[in-house]
Design a protein that fits this description.
mainly alpha; 106 residues; single chain; three-stranded antiparallel beta sheet
């Protein structure tokens, strides 16, 4: 079924940029959603823990912005120290985070 140069492929209207070829969009992989959920939990758990500990220790969000700024500054310095002391491990971590970034945009 065609309509103004587009064809319905069953999952949606898709038109490629090359030579006007129309194709069906690929189905998402079945394992991608659980992997993304696990990565969100894995990478989000430290942030949630930081918030809970700060609220518990300070009985609220007083000074929360300064605490986040201090943590960010300490982590930047820690990355600098890691890169200077063990560049191979730093590259390994950066490669891991690059793969995670590509996976989350898949």
């Amino acid at each position: 079924m065609t309509f103004e140069g587009r064809r319905y492929g069953g999952t949606g209207w898709v038109r490629s940029r090359s030579l006007g070829i129309v194709s069906r969009a690929p189905r998402p992989l079945a394992w991608i959603v659980p992997v993304k959920a696990a990565l969100v939990v894995f990478l989000g758990a430290p942030a949630v823990r930081f918030i809970v500990v700060h609220v518990w220790t300070h009985s609220g969000f007083d000074g929360f912005g300064a605490a986040v700024g201090n943590q960010v500054g300490e982590r930047i310095l820690a990355w600098g120290q890691l890169a200077a002391a063990d560049p191979h491990r730093a590259l390994l971590y950066l490669g891991f985070f690059g793969d995670v970034s590509r996976l989350m945009h898949w």
